[in-house]
Amino acid sequence: MEETRERKSELREEALGRLAALDPGQIAEKVKAIEERLFEFANFLESRIVLFYTPAPGEVDTTEILRRSVMYNKIIVLPLFLPDQDPAVRLYKVDDIQKDLVKGTRGNLEPNPKRCKSVPLDCLDIAIVPGLVMDEKGGRIGTGHGSFDQLIPELPATTRKVGLVFESRIVPAVPMESHDKYLDIIITETRIIYKI
């Protein structure tokens, strides 16, 4: 178990190092290519209620994806992580990306529960999930906070779980622990990987 955690930590550090070696223009090009693949992806286009994430450092930036999803009339749902409460994750519908978000526990933006309506898990069509490292089988390593590790197993089997990650962060195998769950599909700037 400890060996698995150490290996995950090493892979996280390597992934962040590879990203730091790129200039902002190169990163922006890769993010744009991932965005284009997502908006050409049939499961996403057919979905109505979409769970998104707002990026923590090192994750694929979804800022433009969120803006564009508004134009596609998607119902945008974002998680609010409450580590000291039960349940530790709550989902909220975000109507105004500019006004409905506040800084969250992961250092990124999260829905403001005073402005947003709660959404039940079972109504999600698709979940867009972040990761720093992924493999072709759907294994993922996040930032290490465990936030999405808690959320992914709670998602209904009918909700497609789609990871966004840079191609350079696809590894042969992600070390998995008993609580880790696999994603269904991975989208990088160069391809869509179907695990299902």
Automatic annotation (TrEMBL):
Pfam families: 5-FTHF_cyc-lig (PF01812). GO terms for biological process: folic acid-containing compound biosynthetic process; tetrahydrofolate interconversion. The keyword ATP-binding applies. It catalyses: (6S)-5-formyl-5,6,7,8-tetrahydrofolate + ATP = (6R)-5,10-methenyltetrahydrofolate + ADP + phosphate. One of its GO terms (molecular function) is metal ion binding. It is an enzyme of class 6 (ligase). Its EC number is 6.3.3.2. Substrate binds at residue 59. Keywords: ATP-binding, Ligase, Magnesium, Metal-binding, Nucleotide-binding. Its cofactor is Mg(2+). ATP binds at residues 8-12. Belongs to the 5-formyltetrahydrofolate cyclo-ligase family. This is 5-formyltetrahydrofolate cyclo-ligase.
